Each structure stands twice: as structure tokens, then as C-alpha cells.
């Protein structure tokens, strides 16, 4: 369907068959000539004297009067086509093609069944892939631009697929001489419409892939390259679409070869240019994510798995290469309704591969839900290191560890604690013993189906912070409403800065959990609000969030820098938050009542937010804990520029040196820096403006107003 049929194409197609037919007529004698002459008279075809000059054509190795040689020659028709085109109509050429097929005993074959089989298989496979993708996204309850684009692609693809099916009913897939009168014109009209629509179907499918990359790769240079690629895709496909629409002038000349005025673009040049552009686009789309793999915070096995997912896109590239070889007959075929069928099915395969490839990451997540022990789709296994789950340090044994592992995969008979099933099915946690649970409030822990055990669902409540003693009050009036740009404004005044919905700078990688930028900003504000007052000197705050609990997410615990108040130099905000979480998880009277082993495993499903980049000590603790994600605001470099003494080893470097750990942690930095920077800019700059709600005291420090 990525075709560009023109008058030149037809010259080498139907008119070439006409040439061969005429050659057969000229060479007929005796009874055969009488049969042909009778049909010529009944059809009232042009007088053969008009084309007598074609007998002087040389180079085919045949005498035009030699019928046997003419039927066997593949060159003679091409040489005679230009001589014959001015003398016959499209109907004449079809009639003479039928005579030539009868005279030369040409086969009556059909590729229609094979073509339709490929067409239906590819489209149904693409529909299934998109259906599974949407099911997976419905569990996360997060929809994004790439979902809309891929759905648009499959919906628009109904048009060209339907047109090809109609073409097949008219004879596309059979030889030209087996067509009925008038069918060739209709087939060319449908082909013209199909190839125009297909250009934009492929555009939507490729845009979906690139926008998906934008969600999972957040390095500034990558995003710049991705946006440039989007512009290149749109511009390239619009140009190809324009050239396809106006490939002939007048446009009707595309399907009506009885028009002898105007002209068409060279079909071969346009087809090859189209394929070359597609190959270039495929190579760039393939290269972009592969180039990012070395910098991802993943172990080797996971990188290989991710690379395999992306390399499956090369199948579409291979189909483009194969179609390029098939295009060698484009514009030169003497039998277009037969020879162009492989072009159509390889084009269809390319589209199907692009759609399926765009859905594979989400399908993988879904398969992990349904078949958690199916290691082909499991990028990493819950294999704790000695330091993560040790028999001596946490007082557990092999049996306890196995229990924790089975809970990770949802096999425990007790309510799961931050397991994949637990958090991804939006269950906020097991109820405490004192909770009053409505007998009708149940949830299937396997929300995606199956006869699985039921677990009680705790009542939902808005996020509540905890202080250093794990208090359950809400001193800063944190709103529980869902986040949006400018929503959830705290009661405590924030630093003077314009509101911002998107991060200013991005780090290397984030897990594809569907958390949008406004939700990230909301929780970064909660890290700011974890501070004991609006302007403490060491204004380092942190929150730990369960993002897979559904909706906004669940606040698990908070922490703020307390080394001065406690005399403990290790109590940075992140360390306090981790300590608080551990105490909350293992509290026998608390909501979770976990064993120490299970508490260690629980961190693998949580995200830690801190309003400033973690020092090497805290970054190492985050990696040892095995958090799912780590998100920070102000960078270490910015802190140094503001006058803060720091050990200038970035958390990214710490993460890079921790690849041997069994756990993996997503990494995202520079979130909401226009708000977080204000907490750290005044301490060493006497003329700096204090955060809102604070003013300069006699000591020179900012204090609550």
C-alpha cells in the first residue's frame, strides 16, 4: 500500500500486455488468425496497420511474426509498449491480453487467498496486541499520548485494509488477463486511496513508539533527539503523502490511462524514495532507545531483555528491506494485479510489526501479572543479597525468606505486603486488627481475573504525614485532592517562585509506572512539607510513597533532617524516612505488622522523594533498601553553588557503581527545582530572599514570620 502507481507504471503493465497480445495476433496464421480476426471485428479494436511500425523493434531476440518466441519473451512486451500506447484504450488492452493469454496458454492462478490470509492475520494480531495493551493500562488507570496514537493508527488502518479486501474481490491477486471489464480502473482507484491513507497510518504508529520513548527516557539530549525525530516523521510523511496525492496531473490519470494529456511522476523514483525514507526512520527509531541502554540503572540480564523488546522493531525494518526488493518490478511489471501483491502484504506486515512492537512493553507487564513465574517475561527475580535479607541481621531463616519471596509473587495465603499483585491492583494494605471493615467491602487481589482468594480492602484515606515519632496528625494541612497543575496547594507558604507543572531537568531513567509529571510535583511538595517549619536551616525533607496503590498514590512515611536535634550525624532526611518506614512496617500494633524479612522486601515497591539530591551515604542506603524509584529536586551541584558543603559524588555515580546489587532502582532528578531551590538558597547568602512565611531574624537566619 505504500505504492505510487503512475502512467509510467501502467505503460509497463497493462499496455505491455497489450503489446504482447498484438504480437501474438500479428504472428497468427491459419485457423488461429481467423479466431483472432473474428474477435477483433466483434470488439471493434483498432486497425493493426496503425502499429505496423512496431515490427522494427529489435533487442528482444524475437521476430514479431514468431508467435512462439513472442509468447516466451519477457522483453518484447516492454520494448513494444511505448509504440502501442497511443493506439488503444484500457479496454482494448484488456481484451487483447485475454486473447494473448488464450493463445499462449497462460496460467489462471490466484494469490488472493494467501494475501487475505496475511492481511487478516496481521490485523487481528495488531488488534489483540492493542487490546492487551489497553487492558494493562486500565489496571494502572493511567492513559497517555502514545495510547491514543496507537489506537488512532489501528482505527485509521481499517480504511486501507478494507480497500485491499474490496480490491481482492475485484481480481487483485490474479493475473491481469483474468480481470473483468472495468475492474482494472476500479482497482487502481482503490489502490490510490489505500496508499494515501496508509502513509498516515504508519505515521501514527511510529509517533506512538517515539512518544512512548519520551515517557521512559528523560535525559535532556534524548528528549531533544526524540522531539526532532517526531518533527522529521511528520514532515517526511506529509511530503510523501503530498507526492502520492499529486503523483499524477490530472489526478484522474492515476487510474484512467485513456487520458493522453498531463503526466505522472516516475513511479520507481517515488517508490524507492518512499522506502529509503522508511528505512531511515526505522533505523533512527531503533537506535534511539538502544543508545540509552548502557546508562540505565539495570543489571546485564535486564538490559538484554529490554534490548530484545526494542530490537523486535527491527522486524519492521527487515520487512521494509524485503519490500524494497519487491519494488524492483514496480513500474516495469506487465502484470500489476499479480506482481504487486507481495508489495501489499509486506507493507501490511510492516504496519502490523510496528503496532505490535509499540505494545510489547505493556504486554510484558500484563504477562507478569498473569504468569508471575514465567521467567521469559520476568526481567529480574526477587533474589535478595546477603546484606538485604540475612539470617543473623534480621532474625529470619530460609523458611522466612521463602515466605517473603512467595508473597512477592502473590502466592502467600496471608494478605500480601507491597507485592506486585498487592500494589498493582490498588490495594492500600491489610487492615489493622482494630479496623472496622464493612462485610461488603472486598476486592479481588487478582483484579485481572481468575478464581483467586479474596482479601479485605482497607478504607481509603487522604495522604497523611508522620513526624519523627511517626505521629498521625496533619500539621501542614496537606490536601488529599488529586493532583493537577496548581492544585493541592499547601497551607504553609512556599518559596517565591512561579508554579511549574513539569520538571526542569531530567536524569537517566524512570520505571514505566505511568506516574505523570503533576503527580511527581505533588509528592515533591510533600517532601518540602515534611520539614518541621517553613524555613529550617537544614531543609532536607523526604517522603516514601506507594505509587501502585492507585490514583494519587499512598503516603507511607516521611522524614526530615534531624542530625542537629538528635546528635546523630547520619539522620539526613532520607535516612529518617527509611527508619520511619521500617518502624511502621514492623510495628505489631500497626497497620502492616510485617516480619523483618517482609519489611525489607516491601521497599522494592516504593518510591522515595527527597527535595535535594541524596549525599553518597543516603544514595547508598536507597540502593541497599532496593527502592523501586528515587526522585529528587535540587541537585548536589546546585547546593554547592549555593554555598553548601557537600561530598561531590552524585547519586547517579553511586547508582552506576551499584549494578551488582540484585535490586534495581529507577532514577529521576531535577523535579520541581523552582520550588525546592528556595529552601537552600538563603543560608549562605545574606542578601537572599527568605522563603515565604519566613523573614530574616537578628541572627541573620531565616525564621518563621
TrEMBL record:
Transmembrane helix recorded as keyword: yes
Keywords for the protein's UniProt record, in alphabetical order: Membrane, Signal, Transmembrane, Transmembrane helix
Gene3D superfamilies on file: Cytidine Deaminase, domain 2
InterPro entries xref list: CMP_dCMP_dom, Cytidine_deaminase-like, Rhodopsin_dom_fungi, SAT4-like
GO terms under biological process: nucleobase-containing compound metabolic process
Membrane topology: Multi-pass membrane protein
Superkingdom field: Eukaryota
UniProt domain CMP/dCMP-type deaminase: residue ranges: 518-647
This protein's record includes keyword Transmembrane helix: yes
SUPFAM superfamilies documented for this protein: Cytidine deaminase-like (SSF53927)
PROSITE patterns according to UniProt: CYT_DCMP_DEAMINASES_2 (PS51747)
Signal peptide: 1-30
Location of the protein in the cell: Membrane
Pfam families: dCMP_cyt_deam_1 (PF00383), Fung_rhodopsin (PF20684)
A molecular-function term among this protein's GO annotations: catalytic activity
One Gene Ontology cellular component: membrane
Regions crossing the membrane: 115-136, 148-170, 190-214, 226-246, 276-296, 308-331, 343-363
Family under the similarity heading: Belongs to the SAT4 family.
Protein's recorded name: CMP/dCMP-type deaminase domain-containing protein
